[in-house]
Give the backbone structure.
Amino acid sequence: MTERARRTVLTAGLLGLLALLGWALADLPPFGTSPPTLGGLLAGRSLEDTHATNAVASIVFDYRAADTLGEEFILFAAVAGIALLLRAQRDEVEATSEDAAPGRDVPPTSDAVHLAGVVFSGGAVLLGGYTIVHGHLTPGGGFQGGVVLAGALLMLYVADDYDTFQRITSMRLLEREEAVGAGLFALVGLAGIVGGTGFLANFLPLGTPGRLVSAGTVPLLNLAVGLAVAAGSVLIVDEFLEQALRIRQRS
Amino acid sequence: MNVLIAIALLLVAAAGLAVVRERDPLRMAIAVSVQGVVLALLFLLLQAPEVAFAQVVVGTIVIPLMTLFAFVKIHGGAR
């Protein structure tokens, strides 16, 4: 097929897609209304059912906690798969990281970048920890706080070079943290069965809405997800960093 | 649909166009990063702060970093 013919087919297809998409979008309820569907029902009931002021957290960690368990283990499997694929193969060796030109040390990062990285890293740790702990009260939650914590650790890589980053963060600790996070989620679920309610049921006392210790198992699950996601994200990026900077062909 | 959301949608479209039209991988990674930020802004305006939170870190930091490292690895560091 010539390029011209390909472009015609593509344009025709895209125009058809545009027409169908416009037709579908015109049927949507107006932005901001609460239609009488499951979403509207849950949004109305979530406060009295779970005593969590963040309706999204009560849906993610109480009504549909099983889905979140699945997502946790998807992340876990992804990290395991990446670690498996990006290890040093038989014909590769792990060397010290160096720049493209041989015989040249990695130039140190400028003072401005160094300072900015360190300052933002501290702030991001605070923000991430706050978001995880207050997941059932304010917008945010385990996953969001977890990725912000991962960003805080990665800021340290931006502030300096890879060797310093490797020395500061312990990958072993992160691997264990990730396993603890994923395992804690499953354990809280199993504890529901042992306690006589269902798997991942909210069996802890609900408390008064708005307090830090409230909403039963929701803050616990938030913590578990936060741990697992923070560690998992740093592990993923570290595998890529190691592969790009350290692993090279055995010469 | 109010003006802010319309502006944010236009910005997202512009950033997406920039990503597609860019050829140099480093610049494309930065364009993806910019699109991540603008998309997070759109999510915030559509009153989805959780999604915006996640999008800022994942779409702005992790995704461009991963694509950049993959490119560096495949092409042996040559720009």
